[in-house]
Amino acid sequence: MWRRLPVLLAATLLAAVPLTSPASTAPSAEAESTADSEQYDWRNAQIGGGGFVPGIVFNRTEPGLVYARTDIGGAYRRDSGTDGRWVPLLDWVGQDNWGYNGVASLATDPVNPDRVYAAVGMYTNSWDPNNGAILRSKDRGESWKITELPFKLGGNMPGRGMGERLAIDPNDNSVLYLGTPSGNGLWRSTDHGKTWSEVGNFPNPGNYVADPSDTTGLYSDNQGVTWVAFDRGSGSSGSPTSDIYVGVADKQNTIYRSTDAGATWERVPNQPTGHLAHKAVIDSRNGYLYMATSDTGGPYDGSSGDVWKLDTETGAWTRISPVPSTSSDNYYGYSGLTIDRQNPDTLMVATQVSWYPDVILFRSTDGGQTWSRIWDWDAYPNRELNYEMDISSVPWLTFGTEQPAPPETSPKLGWMTESVEIDPFDSDHMLYGTGATIYGTDNLTEWDEGNKITIEPRVAGLEETAVFDLISPPGGAPVLSALGDLGGFRHERLDEVPDSIYENPVFTSTTSMDYAGTSPDTIVRVGEFDKSSRPDDSRVAFSHDGGKSWFQNTEPSGVTGGGTVAAAADGSGFVWSPEGTGVHYTTDQGASWQSASGIPSGARVESDRVDPNKFYGFHRGTFYVSTDGGATFTASSASELPSGSGYFKAVPGRAGEIWLTGEGGLWHSTDSGESFSRISGVAGSDNIGFGKSAPGSDYPAMYSIATVDGVTGVFRSDDAGQSWTRINDDQHQYGNIGDAITGDPDVYGRVYLGTNGRGVIYADPSN
């Protein structure tokens, strides 16, 4: 999935910092007073998933206790008491440690179900400035303590679907193991995850990288030690488990074991070579280890693989692949391996990856001797489906497409299906993650009777989208979102999942939106998609009914990405600053485009909210103004503005009034950007938006992600920036925020906040 690169300053965390500790921030020398605070109620505008779920982990001691990990959206616990809704556990993560929302692995304690652990850190390269950490909780994730590690983890790196890298000894739960990337080897804790040390005699830190030529460090990192599995039957309660198996990203040496509780290690004899072990599951009752392999680390690729069965007593390996790698019909690897703990001869595995026509789930009830498929070929191009899908709870999973020609279907059964899990207490209950949601079924064993199983989204409460922009037009839908991977939604109700993403055209990602200040039903959006597969579609679209329907026209030559866009106050014209070419404007709704002069490529553009002839731009410390509908821009004489490409907004209902955010402060102009004054007490700001005025005020309420009087948070001002009130708290920080914030023009006090992984958040005063 596409993810933007976050750029934030980070502060070093101390080991074992409690959840209630405030975010670490740099106090401002300009602060003159202490900002007030107000209690707000924070919740998600319902979307229902939207991102990759690489791991689902059931507790094997307590029925109904299950966790999910995401690559950029934190961790969740499923609450069996609220119709199976997922409860977010890491909303306390702040801007100083935003990478903790990348969960590389998760483990739930099989001895004490109240304990849960998460290995966190988003990137192993320079994109994440912090090291990884182990989060540990004694109350199922309601509160956490932190142990910082001396290396990075990669919850959003290639190979993130392999695992689980973090494992708890089922016989002695004080012992945990962690497989790490980047050549850092295998690590162990003997005090419930509080302290960690490297297992010095573990022989292989891995050597597989996805792309050695990559210079960013994203694809050239060693994917390392990828999973740990304990053979519970080799030990007894209260003593460390003797037999431990470890997967390594090394195609010639992919599995190791210890038979003396980690004192010594050996390469498992006679193991298969040529592939990477994505998953392993141990059947301690019958003495088998099952292993699913692929030729890559995934999650986007995989073109060959096998499923193997190891007799842990005799050491004999048996290839039990549904379609072996030697077959011409094998064009995928395998992942998503699970067994039925009630009937351990029953196992399932998923393809890694079968993009076309769909993922394949395989099921065996005889230990892998024979397999059945969730779909099979009829007379090509038709397929016989052994399942029914009901997506009524998340109808947008069709992704705005009509029913495609066979053999494809809409919705798809899945993709990037790295985690398939049968409930250890209920053979009929199965969950699996995809690139967009969690699917599940409650009649899984009907498969074995030759009947169709019913598959439904099981994602309520789990929100995982990256938000690039938000608008709240007065008198219209509460909020419209610009999202990565999904395009975005017109959110007619905040408590209901939208029916469909934006269509005509569908964007893979929407990068910017705007509405006309005095004609708010006129809306424009710009975004990105694979132009080579849809050459007749444009990366800009227009609406005249508040985003209910859309139409497209042309785009300027040279466009490669969405960039930013602005609508004239009366909707008579539009200015677009796309990627790949310079700033352009149109007065005929995209039927033709002309180049704007006087403004550099890549400038952020906005419109005056009252004067239809005025547009503004900002780029690398210089502010630009157009008074002729975007045809020509002139650089302002304003100086000492932030050097980056900060966000700025024009004030609704006030011609020529602008607020500009950036590192080091917050700036205000009342003369169309000819001059700016810096606001005292604000040491830095990421973004700003406006909403309905407070009672008795004629100035819009202002909302900003900022550092005020040494505290970083979400703030509201009801008096044009003279004073600020913090409206979030340390439990509602949402990691990397800053791309999108706006108030509601119809509801005083309501704010909409865009996150990079936790979806669209909104909040109202508690009173």
From TrEMBL:
<keyword id="KW-0624">Polysaccharide degradation</keyword>
<keyword id="KW-0378">Hydrolase</keyword>
<dbReference type="GO" id="GO:0016798">
    <property type="term" value="F:hydrolase activity, acting on glycosyl bonds"/>
</dbReference>
<dbReference type="Pfam" id="PF02012">
    <property type="entry name" value="BNR"/>
</dbReference>
<dbReference type="GO" id="GO:0010411">
    <property type="term" value="P:xyloglucan metabolic process"/>
</dbReference>
<dbReference type="GO" id="GO:0030245">
    <property type="term" value="P:cellulose catabolic process"/>
</dbReference>
<comment type="similarity">
    <text>Belongs to the glycosyl hydrolase 74 family.</text>
</comment>
<protein>
    <submittedName>
        <fullName>BNR/Asp-box repeat-containing protein</fullName>
    </submittedName>
</protein>
<feature type="region of interest" description="Disordered">
    <location>
        <begin position="533"/>
        <end position="556"/>
    </location>
</feature>
<keyword id="KW-0732">Signal</keyword>
<feature type="signal peptide">
    <location>
        <begin position="1"/>
        <end position="23"/>
    </location>
</feature>
<keyword id="KW-0326">Glycosidase</keyword>
<dbReference type="InterPro" id="IPR015943">
    <property type="entry name" value="WD40/YVTN_repeat-like_dom_sf"/>
</dbReference>
<keyword id="KW-0136">Cellulose degradation</keyword>
<dbReference type="InterPro" id="IPR002860">
    <property type="entry name" value="BNR_rpt"/>
</dbReference>
<dbReference type="InterPro" id="IPR052025">
    <property type="entry name" value="Xyloglucanase_GH74"/>
</dbReference>
<keyword id="KW-0119">Carbohydrate metabolism</keyword>
